[in-house]
Amino acid sequence: MTLSATPPALQRIVDLFAGAPRQLRLEALLEYSRKLPPLPPHLAGDHAAMEQVPECQTPFFLATEVDDDSRVRLYFDVPAEAPTTRGFAGILSAGLDGATAAEVLATPADFYARMGLAEVISSLRLRGMSAILNRLKRQVAAQVAVV
After folding, report:
1. Which of 3, 81, 84, 105 is least buried, going by the fewest C-beta atoms within 10 A?
2. How many C-beta atoms surround the C-beta of residue 74 within 10 A?
3. Whole domain around residue 55: which residue ranges?
4. In a domain, 105, yes or no
5. What is the tally of structural domains in the chain?
6. Residue 117 resides in a domain
7. How many angstroms separate the CA atoms of 53 and 83, rounded?
8. CATH number of the CATH domain containing 47
9. What pLDDT sits at residue 121?
10. 1 found inside a domain
11. Where are the beta strands (DSSP E) in the chain?
12. Measured between alpha carbons, how far is 36 from 59 in angstroms, rounded to an integer?
């Protein structure tokens, strides 16, 4: 049995948030919203090639790719008008993009709880974050199963 473990890059982000005062956590989340990379040309404007996360209050689309070395690439399309949700996508991108499929799949489903985000965002948004991670992991698992 494999225990859930937060990948190193994501753990650094978790630690940064956990150690920050409440107000700085919200500011850091907004900073990650600005760091979210743009979609690559093969996905830009093509929501049909991505999966929508209907649990999110805002239109949220994601796609994953697992390469031959089992490294995961993450792609998110989230409107700039949704900075909280976009910030979570930015955190996932910074913390999991380039990780191995095994690391992504072992990421604890509630890693964001240790970040202290429940103090700065609503429980409805936290449920959306959980749904995003679950769909992302499901996509990765499906690709690994095909290989």
Report:
1. 3
2. 22
3. 8-146
4. yes
5. 1
6. yes
7. 16
8. 3.90.1010.10
9. 86
10. no
11. 51-52, 61-66, 72-77
12. 15
